[in-house]
Amino acid sequence: MAPETPFPQPPGRLIEVLHQRQQQHGHLSRTTLAMVAQELRLPPAHVYGVASFYHLFRLTPPTPHRCGICFGTACLLRGAAALAAAQAQRLGVRLDDPAGDGLWSLETVSCLGACGLAPVLVMDGVPRRAEAP
Amino acid sequence: MRDGETAPVQLRLCDASGCRAAGAGALAAALGAALEGGGGQGPRPRLKPVGCLRLCSHGPLLALDHGGASALYGGLTAEQVPTLLAIACNHPGGHDGDRDPRRRALEAHRLDSHHPFFALQHPLVLETCGLVDPTDLDDALAHGAYRQLQRLLATATPAQVRAEVRRSGLRGRGGAGYPTGLKWDTVALQPPAPRLVVANGDEGDPGAFMDRSVLEGDPHRLLEGLAIAAYAVGARHGYIYVRAEYPLAIERLLRAVVQAMERGLLGQADPATGFAFVPELRVGAGAYVCGEETALLASIAGGRGIPRQRPPFPAQAGLAGCPTLINNIETLAALPALLRMGGEAYAAIGPAACPGTKVFSVSGSVVRTGLVEVPMGISLRTVVQTMAGGVPGGIGADGGIKAVQTGGPSGGCLPAALLDTPIDYEGLRALGSSLGSGGLVVLDHSCAMPELARHFMAFCAGESCGKCIPCRAGTVQLADLLERLMQRRATAADLDLIEQLAAVVQRTSLCGLGQTAPNPLVSTLRHFRHEYSERLLPDEPWLS
User: Fold this and answer.
1) Which domains does chain A have, with CATH numbers?
2) Contact call for A55 and B286, based on CB within 8 A
3) B105 close to A (CB below 8 A)
4) Rounded to an integer, what distance in angstroms lies between the CA atom of residue B453 and that of residue B474?
5) How high is the ipTM of this complex?
6) What CA–CA distance (Å, rounded) separates B391 from B404?
7) Any chain B CB within 8 A of the CB of A102?
């Protein structure tokens, strides 16, 4: 038996819903945001405000492949900046340009908590230890 | 061998995200395939995925439990699996084994469990992290999970639980160090109304991975601690907020919640007290400011993570206006061990003003990076030099260490000369740093302090929510001024401006993010001022 909800439920589902939609579509388009606003009966401005506030919500389509460089303190000390520069040159893209070259893009990511392995590189979502250049 | 039957042979493979990034997946696959294929004689060893085994730098880590003893190996690859299984299946140190070159090669991967890195640890929060399978409720129960919750429900009133926590002297492990018992009392003693509990797992400080390790390695411990906190303050509903950058922690926690609810450990009314507790998981979306408690609540409620003025404190009016208890993951995970020992026994660990143990994540320029749990009051030198081994190849009394960065972007840097400082909240604050949530990043002499200060300032400028001007504009200006300094275009007047502006941002920002954003700058100016002044443009007398 589930206990009764003891308090008025806060309007808490928006971030979860945005996560789900981003997982489905890869990013949050204007149409998606408008639909979410309608479904949850929230002002579109509120939905756009939340989606644009958080770093992990993408408002433009991602490239098929993405390379992330962790810029946490430990990674920075162990050469994350040089690693990012080397990757940018290798891939021929600019750092933190979400459009990349259409196939690959290079982005900085916040600390993944894998500091023991610094510098850390994230290839298509899989973190791994990188050799400092 | 009769011993083999009484103490089963098992291989505990670290399956935390650190070791996964170091190749634990490939090792697990090779071990699984070899065990599946059979071969060898004697009892077949059991392969058990566990949480963090502490020494992340030497990952992937694997512990072999054999005949009551345990051997820890680091950096193994699939090629060493047959030799490892031969040892596991037969005798651990037979005479003919020593002559086998493959065994000798494996021995080179064996880690010394008597090294201070392991020997000086005092695991309470992490007492079963690395021993239990984080995906298996029965294994957690066999290791004592939920026993304290059930004991307290049967024998103690909420007021007695709060009194015990007050006696223990436990202080919030998120960084502020507020006495936990006092916070609980504040929530419990509010006028009658529904109450809520929140576990803050938005571990955003770069260099900190204590909470991640608890969630990945022992999620039921957090759930037990959260349920105890809920019972103590009279809450029936709670939220666990975890940052989205920790997918494995989220997966394991979600599974643990489902397991505990299905088994009736949570969610169902206790027959004696009628207490029923329902936890709910909330996933962040990448915003450092959400670690601040009022921003965290805004984010749980589905909005932008923007802090608000306090008072009212969340303990008085939090989520949906209900009195809300917010505790850090590590604080909550300390509760089962604390309540088992009793408040007085816990208070006897470490200094009287801030007792207990603290988990630190050690990273940066050290030989051994990883997770340590040590008594409060231990010296910084013991942790970063004796345990972690100092800078690789470092020489001199300080082991090549230039400074230790504590507390991430809201903390500061302590120079090597202050390494003998005992670790506690007030001690580090008096030196212009802060304990923060427990990330210790060791810096060697190649690190330029103004460069580090600029990095953190740029980080805070990017993470500022934009609500108050001192933080929104001040961090950007400070980052620009520091950039100018790095390009050697700044004058002495600019440095004065930097100091004045830093003080303004500290004193006038709305929330903790802005108030502490200048800390890395101010603390490095205090201890390494010459590094700033040597980058200034020379005085030009004709200008004055």
Assistant:
1) 14-53 (no CATH), 65-129 (3.40.30.10)
2) yes
3) no
4) 14
5) 0.90
6) 11
7) no
CA B205/CA A115 separation, integer angstroms? 11
pLDDT of residue B146: 97
What chain B holds in terms of domains, given with CATH numbers, is: 2-113 (3.40.30.10), 137-347 (3.40.50.11540), 357-444 (3.10.20.600), 449-533 (1.20.1440.230)
Sign of CA dihedral B284, B128, B122, A78: negative
A54 contacts chain B (CB < 8 A): yes
Tokens representing B435?
A: 């304990």
Q: In what order do the strands lie in the sheet with A65-70?
A: A104-109, A65-70, A120-123, A126-129
Distance between alpha carbon B276 and the CA centroid of its chain, in Å? 29
How does pLDDT run across A36-71, given as a tens digit for each residue?
A: 999 998 999 999 999 999 999 999 999 999 999 999
Contact A113 B447 (CB under 8 A): no
DSSP 8-state class, residue B390: S
**What are B403-457's pLDDT values in tens digits?**
999 998 999 999 999 999 999 999 899 998 888 889 999 999 999 999 999 999 9
Of A6, A74, A127, the CB nearest to B236: A6
Tell me if residue B114 falls in helix, strand or coil: coil
Residue type at B184? W
Quick one: which of B126, B116, B305 has its CA closest to B218?
A: B126
Which chain A residues are closer than 8 Å to B298 by Cβ?
none
